[in-house]
């Protein structure tokens, strides 16, 4: 089992969610995040150029079976990208998921996903 964590731009959330639903991935967790990568978004505030410390993003988390990993990552990477790609499009992290327990039934492992 794997845990996929994707950090994407806010304007791509609906598009990514719809693309995941199209490949029958509907069990996702979404939360707001803020972070800083290599992008240098500048804002004009009271006549001065300001580079903000943290940029708002969306965080998507998906627990999946090993065999679904590439399909999910490919869908997110292809959908979250702006055009030919630009700095700030996001990142996908994949980590081993040691255990998953469904609280209601106490099922564990891949069946609990």
Protein model, in words:
The protein has helices spanning 13-22, 69-80; strands spanning 2-8, 29-35, 43-45, 48-50, 55-64, 90-96. The longest helix is centred in the middle third of the chain and has 12 residues, at 69-80. It has a 4-stranded antiparallel sheet, with helices on one face. Strands 3-4 form a two-stranded antiparallel ribbon. The protein is of the alpha+beta class and 113 residues long. It has one domain: Alpha-Beta Plaits (2-Layer Sandwich), CATH 3.30.70. It contains 2 helices and 6 strands. Helix 1 (13-22) packs antiparallel against helix 2. Strand 3 and strand 4 (48-50) form a beta hairpin.
**Global Rg:** 17 Å
What count of domains describes the coordinates? 1
Q: Which residue ranges are poorly predicted, with pLDDT under 50 across at least 5 consecutive positions?
A: none
CATH hierarchy class name: Alpha Beta
Q: What's the mean pLDDT score? A: 91
Continuous helix count: 2
Shape, per Cα inertia axes = elongated
What is the CATH architecture term?
2-Layer Sandwich
Q: How many beta-strand elements?
A: 6
The sequence of SSEs as H and E is EHEEEEHE
Helix content: 10-25%
Strand order of the largest sheet: 2-5-1-6
% residues in beta strands:
25-35%
